[in-house]
Design goal:
It is a single chain. This protein is an alpha/beta fold and about 250 residues long. The longest helix is centred in the last third of the chain and has 21 residues. Helix content is about 45%, strand content about 15%. About 40% of the residues are buried. Helix 1 packs parallel to helix 9, helix 3 crosses helix 4 and helix 4 packs parallel to helix 5. The protein starts with a strand and ends in a 21-residue tail after the last helix. A 5-stranded parallel sheet has the order 5-4-3-10-9. A 3-stranded parallel sheet has the order 6-7-8. Strands 1-2 form a two-stranded antiparallel sheet.
């Protein structure tokens, strides 16, 4: 079990705090999931005020502020400074968006912001793609976690590039990987964990479900199942059939 800047997680599920029907439903979903990390937007906290922040603190989770909605390195750095002061943590989920339709990260702005924030003592969780070149630049900048997307934020499409995630895992065996964005079903979370990722982060699939509490529990169970399966050593797919019943002792007529 890898650690995230010195913190180990019993539950490999991280949850966002936006778009729930009510703060009470959000709290129940977190408790049902066992999630230990909550992502919080500076804009979300400002909109909810002290009541929202009090609920998050009472849940006993570790807060991971994010720079959601930032379209430049400068804006992301400024938001990170404000988040550190408000939430009193060096953790930051760094987002620098480069495309308005897909919300794909801007790799250039992301690396630029990561270099600045790492030099200032931030512990960065960068929202990135599965691109190995960008990943290397982020690690060299000081990131000790990588958060590749599964699919565009809020799309629910699952893992669009399984090959990319597998090769990223192989290229960075000692760096915690968190699949962030695009997961729509618990099976997507299980698959990400089976590929060797260390956690999954999602929001919309739980918050906008018909029953967010039940869906949060389902995602937690799926993520745990995937982690156990990855550690158990899954069988290698074959092109040919192989009988499960041995032929030794078979009667030959």
């Amino acid at each position: 079990m890898r650690d995230f800047y010195g913190v180990t997680l019993d539950c490999p599920l991280m949850l966002g705090t936006a778009r729930y029907p009510s703060p009470a439903v959000m709290e129940r979903a977190f408790r049902a999931s066992g999630a230990e990390i909550a992502t919080v937007s500076l804009r979300r906290e400002a909109g909810g005020g002290q009541a929202f922040w009090r609920i998050v603190r009472d849940m006993g989770v570790r807060v991971l502020p994010n720079t959601a909605g930032c379209y430049s390195a400068r804006e992301a750095v400024t938001t990170a400074h404000m988040a550190r002061e408000l939430f009193e943590t060096n953790w930051i989920k760094l987002e620098v968006i480069g495309h308005a339709d897909t919300l794909q990260p801007d790799p250039f702005g992301l690396v630029e912001a990561a270099e600045i924030l790492a030099a200032e003592g931030f512990e960065i969780f960068p929202y990135t793609t599965e691109d190995q070149v960008v990943a290397r630049r982020l690690v060299d900048a000081g990131c000790r976690v990588l958060m590749p997307w599964g699919a565009p934020i809020g799309s629910g499409l699952g893992l669009n590039n399984r090959y990319g995630l597998r090769t990223l895992r192989a290229a960075f065996p000692d760096i915690p990987l968190v699949v962030d964005a695009g997961l729509g079903l618990p099976s997507h979370a299980a698959e990400a964990m089976e590929l060797g990722c260390d956690a999954v982060l999602l929001n919309t699939a739980v918050a906008q479900a018909g029953d967010p509490v039940a869906m949060a529990e389902a995602f937690a169970l799926a993520a745990r199942a995937g982690r156990i399966a990855a550690g158990a050593g899954p069988m290698v797919p074959r092109d040919m059939a192989q009988p499960s019943t041995p032929v030794i002792g078979k009667a030959w007529l």
